[in-house]
Structures are given as structure tokens and as C-alpha cells.
Amino acid sequence: MNQCLMPQPIHASGIEILRAAGLNPLIGEAACRVADPQRVVAGIFRSTRFGRPEMERFNNLRVIGVHGAGFDNIDLVAARDFNIPVFNTPGRNARSVAEHAITLMFALSKQLLQSDLAARAGDMAFRFRAQLRELHGQTLGLVGFGAIGKATGALAVALGMQVQVLARSATQEQLAALGMQRADSLSALLQSSDIVSLHLPSMPQTYHLIGAQQLRAMKPTALLINTGRAPLVDEAALIDALQTGVIAGAGLDVYAFDSMAPEYPLLHLPNVLLTPHTGASTEQSLIRMATAVTQGVVHVLAGGEPQDRLA
Predict the structure, then answer these.
(1) 82 and 226: one domain?
(2) pTM confidence score
(3) Which string of DSSP letters, residue by residue, matches 192-231?
């Protein structure tokens, strides 16, 4: 039976689609390491790196599917050289990640983590010291306006936030119809936003888009939300900005390091809220992504052309 590499698990609904099509999923890093290259015809990847050496080893590979929108873990140049189609599944996790971004905004603005700790410690007087704020009326700056950025903006508008967008693909007229406005530049957006939320892919031109200079341009009361990709932010500069009060706080679902040592400063800052890349991990989102990626793999193996092809 032909096999499909799957270093990280996906929802059971996708596994069923593969098995119904006669593909045996090899689930987990260990199973993939001992796979027979002659039998592996497909690969489905979430965040595991898959590059030229792996493609050379699995020389019968006929398709690579990306479970989600981010594809920086796949060597697209090598895939083109080996003539292996690569596709992703954009949009399927948009609502989930958008809700996560808004949740981080709420949690930071309402100091939910500190409030929970205070309540557990019996410190009911915390409410007299807390500095809380509503999202209503705040200005949200969206950097990027793909499916997730659009969904985040729509939720923010519904909450009564003023939303400004930095995106080449959207005109002022299109944004006005959505109750939003267009930012003229990143600098202008940073200076005028109470909350900045990042929704761009990781590419050479977006590497460290937010660094020390950009953080200094933000309001000292501002919050930074990153549910996109870690390389968008210079993490060392962000840590310094959080430690010195350059900005008020940050909500992060992605990091420069997958595993942080116990002494890493980010883990000990009271004005940062961390989640382990769970933005897209709702049940509904996982079903949509698993269904889309497995159906896409089956479609390509049957001779079809992948939707959302990257290489």
C-alpha cells in the first residue's frame, strides 16, 4: 500500500479520507524516519521542516500538502527542481485564528491572567489597582489583509473598534465598505494604533518587519499581537521594548524558538501573554484543514491539479 508521510497528526476526519483512498498514513516523527522511500508517494506537513535532503530520500514523492496557510517550512525551490507539486490550505483556519487574535486583545486589555492569579490568591483588592480598558473605541492596526486579517477586522468592527489596514490589495473604497480605513504606511499605522495585529506570511521582505525602530514608533500604551509568523518580529527588540515600557504589552502565538529555556526573558515578563501556536487549533478549523489537505492529496495522486498550488 502507498504511504503518506505525516510527521505531526491531523484530525481523524482527514485520516479517514486517506485510508478510504488506499493511502496508509505514517503518523509521527518516528514512523516517518523509518518509512520505506519506495512506498511514500505523498507528504502532509504542519510545521515540520521538509527540504532538499528529504526530497532526495523520498524520490517517489508525488505531492506535498501543507496543513494550513504557512509554507515557510517547505523548500519550494527544491520541490520545483524535483517536480513535486506543493499546495497549502489557506482560509480554512481564518475564523479560528481571528478569534484567537481578538481573544489575546481582550485578555491583555482586561488583564485576565493577572486577575485570575489575584483571585486565586484571595487578592480581591486587585480591582482597585488594575488598569483595564475596553476594546470598543480602540484603534486596531492590521498589518496584512488576507483571509485571517479580514476575519480579524470584521470581528473588531463588530466590537466597535476603529480598524485601519495596511495592505496593497485593498483600496480605500473596498475597506470603507467594510467599515475600515486604509493606512498610508506602516509608520503611520504604528503611530496611530492602540493595538497592532500582524497577519503576514514569513518571507524575506517581511523578516523582522517589526524591530526596535518600529516598536519605538508605537504608543507606550499600545499592544502588539502576533498570530502570524515569528520572523515578522525581532524578538530581542520586543523583549527589550516590553522590559523598558516602550509598549504596554504583547500577545504572541508564535516565537523565535520552538522551545524556550526556563530562563528565557519572554517567559518571565508580566506584560506578555503566550499561547503555544494554538490559534488554528479549534476542532472546526482542524476538520476544515485536514479535509482540505487530504482531499487535495488524493486529487493530485489521481492526476488532478492542486488548488492553491505553491510549487
Answers:
(1) no
(2) 0.95
(3) H-SEEEE-----GGGTTSB-HHHHHHS-TT-EEEE-S-GG
Instruction: Please write the tens of the pLDDT for every residue from 35-49.
Output: 999 999 999 999 999
- Is residue 179 located within the same domain as residue 76? no
Residue 170 is given by DSSP the state -
What is the 8-class DSSP label of residue 277? S
Residue 142 has pLDDT above 90, yes or no: yes
List the beta bridge partners of residue 250.
224, 272
Paired residues of 143 in beta bridges? 166, 198
Render pLDDT for 90-130 as a digit per residue (tens, 0 to 9).
999 999 999 999 999 999 999 999 999 999 999 999 999 99
Residues 65 and 201 grouped into a single domain: no
Phi and psi torsions of 309, nearest 5°: -70, 135
Give the containing element (helix H, strand E) for 60: none
* pLDDT of 168 above 90: no
DSSP states of 65-104 as a string?
EESSS--TTB-HHHHHHTT--EE--TTTTHHHHHHHHHHH
